[in-house]
Amino acid sequence: MNPLDWSLIHGPVPVLLLIAGWVSLLGLAVSTTRHWWTRRVPCAVVAAAALTVLVVVWVDEWWHPFPEDLPGDVVFWIAVALLGLCLAAVRMPVLHWRGRVVALVAAALVVAMAANEVNRHYQEYPTLRAMLAPKTEALTTGRTEHTVAVPAGKTLSEVWQPPAGMPAKGTLSSVDIPGTKSGFNARDGYVYLPPAYQADPRPLLPVIVLLAGQPGGPADWVNSGGVQQVLDDFAAAHHGLAPVVVIADPIGSTLGNTLCMDSKIAKAQTYLAEDVPDWVRTHLQTATDRRATSIAGISFGGTCSLQLAVNAPQVYGSFADMSGQSEPTLGTHDETVKEAFGGNEAAFEAVDPAHVMARTKFPDTAGLFMVGTDDAEFGPQQHQMYAAATAAGMHTEFQTVPGGHNWSTFHAEITVAVPWLARQQGLIR
C-alpha cells in the first residue's frame, strides 16, 4: 500500500508515533546531573505550562476562531508538544552539534505525536493523502436534448433505464461559484456528477448543496468525509443514479465565521439561497423544483442547512442537519448579536431558525436531524431543534450514529443522509 494511504487514525502508524513520541519526551527529560533536575527541568515545565495557558486563553478568549472552547484532550496534547519543545530548548546550551540535532529530532517526534493525537480527536485527516488537494476533472457543462423526469406518482429510479457503456463512477470537479448577487467572496467548491449524468437521455437528477463545518472548507467533505465514495456507492446500488452534489463554501476562509446569515459580516444567506442555485441552473442540467433541491451540512454547516431551510423554503424542500447547533454563534449570544447586527436583537431573531420556526409553519419541508451518540455538547442542541422543527409542522426524523463530534461520525452521518434526502427528492422509493 502507498504510504500516503496508511491510516493515521487506526493501526500501527499512530501506535508507532505514540511510542516514538513518549520515548523521545522521556529522553529529553532525563539527565544524570543535579543541575538539570533542579533548574532546567523546572524551567521547561513552568514555561510549557505558561505557554499552554497562553495558547488556550488566546484561542478561546482573544482570537476565538471556534464557537466552542478547545476540548480538554486537545489542550493536553498541546501541552505535551510544548513541553517537548521547551525541554529541547533548555538542553541546547549544553550540547554539541550532534546532540542538538538529536534533541531537535526528538522534539519533532514529540510534536508529531501530539499533532496526530489532535488529529485522532477530530479525525480530519485519516491518511496523509487526505491532506492533499482532491483529484478533480473538468466539469461536464453540455446539455442533452433528451431527458428523463420524475413522472407523477413514481420515483426516478422506477422509470430509469441505464444505457450500455455508462461509467461506473461519478466525477468530481473543482468549480468557482461567484457571489454575483451577494458579493460574497467564496472559495472554490466542488461538484459531484453521478454516472447517470453522463447518459443520453439524461435523467433530471435532484441536487444536494453540501456544507462543511467551521473551521474548514469544501475540500474537507472530499478528503476527510469521503463523500465521493459514499455517492459512488449509492450510485452503484441504484443503476448509476445519485443526487448531484454541490459542495459550496459559506464562510470564505478556513477560520472565518459568517454565521450563514446576511449581516454586517457577509451576505452568506443570499449566496446560498440565490447565487448557488442560480449557478446550478446555469451550469448544470438537473431538476430545479424545490422538492428536488436539498441542503445539508455538518456542525456549522448543519446549523446553516436548517437556517436556509426556514429562511429560503422556496428554494430548499428538505435538509439534513448533521451535528448542528441550536443557534448560529460566534461564541456567545451577546457577542453574536453585537458583531453581526450591531446589537439589534430583533434583526437576529428575524433569521434565527428557532425564532423563525416558533412563528411559522413548514408543512412542506422535510428535515433530518443527526448527531453522534457520544456528542454531549451538540446532542442536546440537536434534540432541541428537532423538537422545534417538529412543532413547526415539518416532516422530521431524528437519527444517531456511533461517535462524537469528528469526521468519522460525519462520514457515518452523510452515509445515512444521502439516501434519506434522495427519498424526499423523489429519486428513490
TrEMBL record:
Top-level taxon: Bacteria
Species this protein is from: Kitasatospora terrestris
Molecular function via GO: hydrolase activity
InterPro entries registered for this protein in UniProt: AB_hydrolase_fold, Esterase-like, Mycobacterial_A85_antigen
Membrane-spanning residues: 6-29, 41-59, 74-90, 97-115
Keywords noted in UniProt: Hydrolase, Membrane, Transmembrane, Transmembrane helix
Protein name: Alpha/beta hydrolase-fold protein
Keyword Cytoplasm found: no
